[in-house]
Amino acid sequence: MTTPLTRTDCAALDAADPLAPLRDQFTLPEGVIYLDGNSLGVLPKATPARVAEVVQQEWGVGLIRSWNTAGWIDLPARIGDKIARLVGAGRGELVAADSTSINLFKVLSAAIAIAREDNPGRRVILSERSNFPTDLYIAQSLARQHGMELVLAASEEIAARITNDVAVLMITQVNYRTGLLHDMVALTAKAHAVGALAVWDLAHSAGALPVDLTGADADFAVGCGYKYLNGGPGSPAFVWAHPRHASRFWQPLSGWMGHAAPFTFDTDYRPAEGISRYLCGTPSAVAMSALECGVDTLLAAEPLGGMAALRAKSLALSGLFLAQVQERCAAHGLPSVSPAEASRRGSQVSLACPGRGYAVMQALIARGVIGDFRAGDGSPQEPDLLRFGFTPLYTRYVDVFDAVTALAAVLDSGEWQQARFNQKAAVT
Ligand SMILES: Cc1ncc(COP(=O)(O)O)c(C=O)c1O
Question: What sign has the CA pseudo-torsion 65, 70, 71, 73?
């Protein structure tokens, strides 16, 4: 058995970490260890000044001229090209727009139409039972609309359930509860082998680990701006369509920004070529500018090894957390529901904590360690979870060590029993 690391060892890892300077890009409150960047990323130092500039200069002085002079109209494509570099997409293939839910509606609609045109009679949308609810709700609505069925499989049964009745496979690459990283290459290939299309939600993978949409030959993807991309609360999301599909279908939210020539004000809708048709209404220049600052914090890692280097550090952090919890919280039985095998783990670790999870997390937050709580359904298969995200741009090895120290203290002292035992929804 290897000897567990001490705090001094962790400090030495930080001192030797070539990615450590990236932390200086962020404003992090004193006395807080933030392990929730998988829910809401932290504030980049550049964002307040940039947002102020957009508001005071571009809006306040430039007024409507700024759509051209400040390039507001190009923001969805310009930021889209930057995000594309993080997820293995080409230039001009991805746009920043709307929310993840709305973008999922667009691409799932397109995938259903294309899959059923190619294979009439297909009725199944296949997803993961513990996929994030909004993904399931959007799929349920489209299933009703198109006379289809949403079939849900357990995480480990998805591959086997990809049979030739499936029209579309829709999966979140990293499961929001367990942090399980699905094999995008293998699942997409299996979907294609039965004539189905593969739609990927990258909410917990874009900016967290290397993603290669082109290499995986995926069909469509959406992702979130406010988690690992640090775009701020309610930040615009993004949408990608493989170029072989992008111009094939009129996505249903046919707003004027997706028109081939919006400023001709034609009576009739004529979709733009390519991914631009996946835009709908006017983009928020303020929110887009904040998103761009967030995306830039990830691109700053490119000279230091980019997403591959960030991935290596994220796994080192989550591996350290798992080992420390096992060593120092063993008496309290907090089994990890996240894959022990690093290659199957996203950038988070979830610990099963049935019954008292909410109170434990509240007590931890009171000590300045911010993770989050995710309620289960009470069954052993889906327990209440303490969820910890490891964002390598700004999380240090000592933060992980200190977070486990706080967790052990909360459990050893029993102070969690004083925390408000009110399992109200944690908004993230
Ligand atoms: C997998 C996944 N998809 C989508 C969302 C949220 O979508 P939206 O930004 O539309 O609320 C989340 C939020 O946590 C998520 O985890």
Answer: negative
Annotated active-site residue 296? The verdict is: no
The residue segments making up the domain with residue 368 are 7-44+306-418
Residue pLDDT tens, the chain, 428 long: 577 899 999 999 999 999 999 999 999 999 999 999 999 999 999 999 999 999 999 999 999 999 999 999 999 999 999 999 999 999 999 999 999 999 999 999 999 999 999 999 999 999 999 999 999 999 999 999 999 999 999 999 999 999 999 999 999 999 999 999 999 999 999 999 999 999 999 999 999 999 999 999 999 999 999 999 999 999 999 999 999 999 999 999 999 999 999 999 999 999 999 999 999 999 999 999 999 999 999 999 999 999 999 999 999 999 999 999 999 999 999 999 999 999 999 999 999 999 899 999 999 999 999 999 999 988 888 999 999 999 999 999 999 999 999 999 999 998 888 876 544 444 44
> Is 106 in contact with 278 (CB distance < 8 Å)?
yes
- Catalytic residue, chosen from 387, 388, 390, 394, is 387
Helix (H/G/I), strand (E/B), else coil: 143: helix
* Residue 217: active-site member: no
Is 132 a residue of the active site? yes
CB distance 373 to 384 below 8 Å: yes
From ligand 1's centre to the CA of 224, what distance in Å? 7
Task: Compute CA distances 232 → 36, 217, 295, whole Å.
Answer: 13, 30, 11
Residues 153 and 208 in one domain: yes
Catalytic residue among 105, 132, 373, 388: 132
* Residue 406, domain CATH: 3.90.1150.10
Considering its fold, how many domains does the chain have in total?
2
Residue 355 sits in the same domain as residue 395? yes
Task: Ligand 1: list residues with CB < 6 Å.
Answer: 99-101, 132, 134-135, 172, 176, 201, 203, 224, 237, 428
Catalytic site includes residue 201:
yes
- Is 187 in the same domain as 336? no
| CATH number for the domain harbouring residue 276 | 3.40.640.10
Closest atom, ligand 1, to C-alpha of 100: 10
How many angstroms separate the alpha carbon of residue 170 from the centre of ligand 1?
Answer: 14
The gap from C-alpha 264 to its chain's centroid, in whole angstroms, comes to 36
Ligand 1 center to residue 19 CA distance, Å? 28
Residue that terminates a domain, selected from 270, 299, 328: 299
Domain-terminating residue out of 278, 299, 320: 299
- pTM of the predicted structure, to 2 decimals: 0.97
Q: Kind and range of the H or E element at 27?
A: strand 26-27
